[in-house]
Amino acid sequence: MKNTFGSNLCLTIFGESHGRAVGAVLDGMAAGCPVDEAFLARCMDARRARGDGLSTARVEADAIQILSGVREGRTTGTPITLMIENQNTRSGDYARTAALLRPGHADYTAYAKYHGFQDARGGGHFSGRITAGLVAGGGIVLAALEQAGIQISTHIRRCAGVEDIPFAQDDPAALAAQLAQLKQKTEGFALLDGAAEEPMKAAIRAAGSEGDSVGGILETAILGLPAGVGEPFFDSVESVLAHMAFSIPAVKGIEFGAGFGFADLRGSQANDPFRVDEVGRITTATNQNAGINGGITNGMPVLFRTVVKPTPSIYKEQQTVDYPARENATLSIHGRHDPCIVPRAAIVQSCAAALAIGDFLCARYGEGWMTLPHTFFQEEG
Amino acid sequence: MKNTFGSNLCLTIFGESHGRAVGAVLDGMAAGCPVDEAFLARCMDARRARGDGLSTARVEADAIQILSGVREGRTTGTPITLMIENQNTRSGDYARTAALLRPGHADYTAYAKYHGFQDARGGGHFSGRITAGLVAGGGIVLAALEQAGIQISTHIRRCAGVEDIPFAQDDPAALAAQLAQLKQKTEGFALLDGAAEEPMKAAIRAAGSEGDSVGGILETAILGLPAGVGEPFFDSVESVLAHMAFSIPAVKGIEFGAGFGFADLRGSQANDPFRVDEVGRITTATNQNAGINGGITNGMPVLFRTVVKPTPSIYKEQQTVDYPARENATLSIHGRHDPCIVPRAAIVQSCAAALAIGDFLCARYGEGWMTLPHTFFQEEG
Amino acid sequence: MKNTFGSNLCLTIFGESHGRAVGAVLDGMAAGCPVDEAFLARCMDARRARGDGLSTARVEADAIQILSGVREGRTTGTPITLMIENQNTRSGDYARTAALLRPGHADYTAYAKYHGFQDARGGGHFSGRITAGLVAGGGIVLAALEQAGIQISTHIRRCAGVEDIPFAQDDPAALAAQLAQLKQKTEGFALLDGAAEEPMKAAIRAAGSEGDSVGGILETAILGLPAGVGEPFFDSVESVLAHMAFSIPAVKGIEFGAGFGFADLRGSQANDPFRVDEVGRITTATNQNAGINGGITNGMPVLFRTVVKPTPSIYKEQQTVDYPARENATLSIHGRHDPCIVPRAAIVQSCAAALAIGDFLCARYGEGWMTLPHTFFQEEG
Amino acid sequence: MKNTFGSNLCLTIFGESHGRAVGAVLDGMAAGCPVDEAFLARCMDARRARGDGLSTARVEADAIQILSGVREGRTTGTPITLMIENQNTRSGDYARTAALLRPGHADYTAYAKYHGFQDARGGGHFSGRITAGLVAGGGIVLAALEQAGIQISTHIRRCAGVEDIPFAQDDPAALAAQLAQLKQKTEGFALLDGAAEEPMKAAIRAAGSEGDSVGGILETAILGLPAGVGEPFFDSVESVLAHMAFSIPAVKGIEFGAGFGFADLRGSQANDPFRVDEVGRITTATNQNAGINGGITNGMPVLFRTVVKPTPSIYKEQQTVDYPARENATLSIHGRHDPCIVPRAAIVQSCAAALAIGDFLCARYGEGWMTLPHTFFQEEG
To answer: What is the pLDDT of residues C32-42, one digit of tens each?
Structure first.
């Protein structure tokens, strides 16, 4: 399916960095869901570059034009087409070094797959800019989930060597408070620890000023999912969330709950004891399995972390190959690049997760889950 | 799609731990591929329990019965049905504790999804035993890949606190030698470091003797893949391999190449410089990106590690819930369980990866890739 | 997807005519649905040959063995594997003429696709026998639909030049009575006009006695579907029912409602006027559009007819090609063949339609539609 | 998948009749295929209304804007987004009768599915206008097929009671000449018999002048397909072509080759004898099976006919229901409508078939079939 994700709720993304537009078609939304363009604009704004030494100097308004599927502020039930025109393109920057493969980037693999016909300007279809369509479409689902009482939020767990406070994995109430806190923080980085922001920014700027870049770790929480969502094997909740997460450029790893830490735990430490809470609901005393047992949700929060590698486009001189000449060469990249994409990727990861979860809910509750009464999922859980 | 994986090369798995049979239907194999039943038997043997204090005392021959799709030792091109009858089932062990949810297991989520109609005996469809079908079907693909010059192998990178030698990520020749070494090791654990085997076994047995279990990390290498395989976004090679890896019960994390280590690297360290080798091929000097740039293979080895959590079924007393009574309870599991499934899961991960790669090759080269001349993929790369 | 049908409710079929077994895996049934083996046996019996001069002398009991997914007479929610072992195979009949391509059959196309590795015995995977798996799996869905108040039934509209009474397309009550009548007719052909049966049988026997075969037309009705099922374009109800119907070997045409007759109607004759009935429901005064407008059901009965070509395997001498020799030749078929498969195909068409409708209901109402209260779909309509 | 068709070569369509734009995303084209905008414009022109009493007075230029996936006249290998802005919309015509369900149209089913949130203006997403995206995307595939030596063409077999000369089903050379003739006919209706055009137009105008509409039959031929394409059961060539054909609004039946005529043939008449031709190729002496045996192509031309019902929007007064009031009412439609859409639908059917065939070729030959040498498919056949 290449550029389409989902079976029942499907997103198809399109566009190239320096082409006419990027965007997406979202198909499978029930009719009648509110589409809050101001909310979508805030999502787009969260992934927008600011040209502040923390992200690329290519700054665009990224206004979403809705070509179909929405009328009078509500979904019509048919495909929603979202177009974001490219404005601030300076392809000349790339032309100078077009023959030289940028290490860590998809320049060479694009040649191998597309035989030179790819639109290489600004990374073309491999550019992080393509995630604008993912945010536009995923943002609509994110809002529908929120209306259903299911919240998805992502913070920067670690970046440029600076740590944030971890999500309260084992404590749904504390986690809910953290999500509320992130929601209120409309400026700056998605961090729980306000004291981490300046040191993190400083560390990113420091790397950027050396012509280098840094990576980091994003942590996402999904709160309010009922138990019983997902499939035992190939469509386990982990499988589908991971599938989606690795669609985000630069993600190279994902772990759920205790994650790689499980390697050094014993079963008696790793198992989450079941408990009956005061209202007769089944919960777990800990949540190392991140709300998923046997691929299926158990009603506890779903939590995962991804690692985002350092932006491959750096200004430092690098060894590489002149592709047409097939000889070794030295590359100094010009153009405008982010010293770190981790902060901008947070909203992308939330939107990606929303699409995956939305598709699961379609499978379980049918195409109309977005219109179920507000309390439905809470009662199900 | 629930229990089916793949778009062009598809595996559908079925069965329950204590039902009549487990198995799989593999559809999409080209006609005329040799099916070496002795090789399949060795794959099945590698995931087989041995009742030696290292794995469950439930020991079965796991003979594969081929119901369709193979004639005179070759694929016919139509669906291959593989059935493994269950023999050594002792459901009585489970009946005693059927009301009690086993922590870390899918008992509760199965109730949430299947409302009590699930076959709960021995974990039913959630049992690791279902991976027998995955190995049976994936083994056929593994052999087809090997004939095409593409090798997939998995070793135990870490288990019960004992480490093996890592795969030689940056050096394809050294890695090929490691794969050859693993191939020759037909007995015991899949380890590169012979000296690690006894300490690892001892540590597993120690945990088992305490009624506990341990987890670990598996590392898989894919060698010989040409450049240009995969898709930029949703069907990135990482996405599909991760989707498949999380289908394996107990896997809770995956990382490619430098993986979570990328969080603390700078771009100048993380980028793999391109080089032209002596025969004019483009390679990379290092391989931290694990042979994948922008979701597409670059011809270098693909490498990933998964974390396998400790077996949830332990003999130690645990806190849990009596599901019908909806009250807190104490559980002491009987039955037969593995103190560690990591060693048995190695072949499962190789077979899972083979299915994912086989499907990618169908998309790129058509349904007949298995019958392309032996040298085709090497020349493509 | 080759041998798998459906997105949410999926059937995978397997087997060869003279192999060990044929069968199917049905995935996506909700847990807790009753599986009435006696009903399934009746479905299988309806497509069974009888060796009575009307169908092939290859007579088999076709007992279904359930390998997984059903426990204590109810679905568990996980894949249901249905195996029917082949018993009465006489491959020798085919060996004599194996080099000669049977006209109208898939012998040549199998060579073109499978390069000689196909299992050619008895038509292999192209045999009508493979529909046994379709009936086994589809029968389970047919029963689930019936429990939900949705009835599917097929009769022989025309065969060997003899006509049956048409379904009462425009009158749901009369149609319901016809379906009840067909249900009670457990012996002989699926006909509304009892007086047509003997002439039809005589005409089939006459063709058979001349070493020839005949075709016919099947008519299927789906009663009780609520309005609002289906999709506007690619997954129109007609699209998916047709996709499924053409999976049945020998089907070469399908038409809905007035069908090809629409070519000679005017819009004023073809449009079905909407009416409000006595209980305030919207119906149509006529039903030439067969319950489907714009690809979506309108609550009126869905009706379609397929044409089934005459069985290609005939005893009359035919002109053909010796494939290995690549020269023209003359063929006289031996073996056991049906002079007409239309009567046996009726249940196949009902089961096929059930699978398509079941998948649509999953998309609309979620995986649990089979467990919705009996009156749900009536109220929806 | 709702509005997406295809597994490897995928088209997603979007838009509403009176919304901002209609269009499509075509994903899966190999890189480097020429995109001839003049050819696409001719395809669009062939489905364009002319306001000449034969089609609706809503006349639009239907210029295709390519938003992504094409650079310097060639495909880049990534998704191709095609947008056609709506210009000549007069929603006011509809507002007057918005409460009244148009018989034969999707007004009621849209209510049932979308609960009143659908964009009802001009039929919204159910309008024939949405096929503009299908033609834009399918046209690109049509051109790629033609470059590969595979031709698809559709003529009006019958319309308003006037017949055209049938395609020369049994004679590939004569059929090729017919296709060449149609290709040269760039003006007026797609007819082989020039003498039929004026009577056909007169009959359409006559119906239109009475405020009525007429239907007809389209016939499509696919020439140059190699043998061996398609799958035995669910993805038979008939299944997938039919699936696609029923996506076209107003299509209510499809038949291949002898089609419904098979009901009255005997096997000895229906079977196409195999023959070896002068260059050693296997062909059939007749072609009643329309180039498909067992769901798979045999190298002979593929032929099918669809019936297109009379346009449901007619000016004659009709009985219907006032939906909000739930009471019977009388409807007189205003707005601009085609008295017959058959002539405009011919190119839609060719483009739809091209998409289906293109997807099959991806499955068989991989994503790069469009770039195989010109003679490849001829040699395969």
So the answer is: 999 999 999 99
Q: What is the mean pLDDT of residues D366-370?
A: 93
User: Measured at the alpha carbon of residue B281, what is the angle toward residues B277 and B284, in degrees to the nearest 5?
Assistant: 65
Q: Residue C147: which of C66, C62, C296, C30 has the closest Cα? A: C30
pLDDT at D62: 83
pLDDT tens string D309-337: 999 999 999 999 999 999 999 999 877 67
SS3 A264: helix
Q: For residue B259, what is the domain's CATH number?
A: 3.60.150.10
Strands (DSSP E) contained in chain A are: 4-5, 10-15, 21-27, 65-68, 70-71, 74-75, 80-85, 151-159, 162-163, 216-223, 251-256, 274-276, 282-284, 292-293, 296-297, 302-308, 318-322, 327-331
* Angle at A147 (CA atoms; ends A142, A149), nearest 5 degrees: 95
How high does pLDDT run on average in chain C? 94
Residue B381 has pLDDT above 70, yes or no: no
Residue A258: closest CA among A131, A167, A193: A167
Nearest to C320 among D3, D270, D274 (CB): D274
- CA–CA dist C31, C76 (Å, integer): 5
Nearest residue to A14 via CA among A129, A130, A139, A138: A130
Angle subtended by helix axes D342-365 and D237-245, to nearest 10: 140
CB count within 10 Å of CB C91 equals 14
Tokens at A195, concatenated: 């004291």
**Residue C363 with chain A: CB contacts under 8 Å:** 8, 362, 366-367
**Residues 6 or more apart whose Cβ sits within 8 Å of residue C34:** C73, C74, C143, C147
Pairing, β D292-293 against β D282-284: unpaired
D240 half-sphere exposure, CB direction, 13 A CA radius? 29
Torsion of CA D92, D96, D97, D98, to 10 degrees: 60
* pLDDT given at position D172: 97
Position C121 confidence tier, pLDDT thresholds 50, 70, 90:
confident
Band of pLDDT at residue D380, cut at 50, 70 and 90: confident
Interface test with D, best of B7, B29, B367 (most D CBs within 10 A): B367
Q: Which percentage of chain C shows pLDDT scores above 70?
A: 96
Nearest to A363 among C78, C232, C366 (CB): C366
Task: Report whether pLDDT(A381) > 90.
Answer: no
Distance CA(C133)–CA(C81), nearest Å, equals 10
Spatial CA neighbour of B157 closest among B216, B198, B204 = B216
A49: left (phi over 0), alpha (psi -120 to 50) or beta: beta
Show the tokens assigned to C270: 């073809």
Q: Give the single-character DSSP code of B262.
A: G
Mean pLDDT over residues A37-52, rounded?
A: 89
Q: How far apart are CA B152 and CA B220, in angstroms?
A: 7
Q: Between C233, C251, C321, which is nearest D247 by CB?
A: C233
With beta carbons under 8 A apart, name residues in chain A contacting B227. Answer: 108-109, 112-113
Q: How many domains does chain D have?
A: 1
Q: D232 and C106: CB-CB below 8 Å?
A: yes
- Domain that includes residue C124, residue range: 4-380
* Spatial distance between the Cα atoms of D312 and D215, rounded to a whole number of angstroms: 10
Higher pLDDT, residue D135 or A375 = D135
pLDDT exceeds 80 at position C96: no
Report the 10 Å Cβ neighbour count for A334.
14
Best B26, B68, B70 member to test C by mutation, with max C CBs in 10 Å, is B68
Q: How far apart are CA C260 and CA C271, in angstroms?
A: 15
CB B370 within 8 A of CB B364: no
Q: What mean pLDDT comes out for the span D3-19? A: 96
Contact (Cβ atoms closer than 8 angstroms) between residue C257 and residue D307: no
